[in-house]
Amino acid sequence: MDDDFLRLYFNNFPEGVKFILDIILERNDLNIIQSQTQSEYKSIAGRSISLDIYAEDNEGKKYNIEIQRSDSGATPKRARFHSSMIDTKLLKKNEKFDNLAETYVIFITENDVIGKGLPLYHFDRYCKETGDYMNDEAHIIYVNGAYQNVDDSIGRLMHDFQCIDADDMYNNELAERFRYFKEKQGGKDNMCRLVEEYAEAYAEEQINLQRKKDIERMLNQGILTHEQIAVSLDVSIDFVKNIADNREIAN
């Protein structure tokens, strides 16, 4: 269920994206013509996002698959934001709104964030008064990663997503790709680079946490100026000022 590994796993692997979409959407006729990982969606005025997996089929439908271990990363408003950001890329200037492509935002979560014990949760817009479907063709689906009933395809898929050994996986289509990254040299090299990036990022994070603690301690002492603290800890003056400013806001 690690999103970084799965982005690596599904990179340049449209067959794998088709396989999981066929299961989630209960189809067997999808034709994925392109897929990519870590697609950047930049906003000029506000927050940008990076999509874990983005795909398009031969009918022009768009698919965004997000892998979320943290419940806080799979809130309904985040799904709404992903859906809206995708829409911003789908029309050219003055193009008719009716030309918007059908979209699917799919969150695969480690836990049952909806809490009803179901394997899948489909969300579409309906009229409260009549119950009629709005038919705006924007779909949000949550896949319950905690559902691992091996008697159905969703349960087997979620089981395989959390395996650490290809021999324990039910789906051969996914197991072979998994073996490539775990056992074969080219895949192992990519995995090693991913692990190194993890280690470097974690080390940098821990160093910054310690620096933050040291800066806060020195600020509490009230002896040194911001410039002196920066020189003493070999950090930028902006780093010290930012911590000091946030400390004042908290107080």
Keywords:
251 residues; alpha/beta; 6-stranded mixed β-sheet
Tell me what the structure shows:
There is one protein chain. By secondary structure, the chain is an alpha/beta fold. It has helices at residues 3-10, 14-24, 76-87, 153-161, 172-183, 185-221, 226-233, 237-250; strands at 32-41, 49-57, 62-68, 103-109, 120-123, 138-144. β3 (62-68), α3 (76-87) and β4 form a beta-alpha-beta unit. α5 packs across α6 and α6 (185-221) packs across α8 (237-250). It starts with a helix and ends with a helix. The model has no long low-confidence stretch (mean pLDDT 86).
Task: Please state the structural category.
Answer: alpha/beta
Strand arrangement across the biggest beta sheet: 1-2-3-4-6-5
Mean pLDDT: 86
The amount of beta strand, in percent, is: 15-25%
- Tally of separate helices: 8
**Span between N and C termini?**
39 Å
Main beta sheet, described? 6 strands, mixed
* Cα Rg: 23 Å
Order of helices and strands: HHEEEHEEEHHHHH
The backbone outline, from C-alpha atoms, is globular
Low-confidence stretches: none
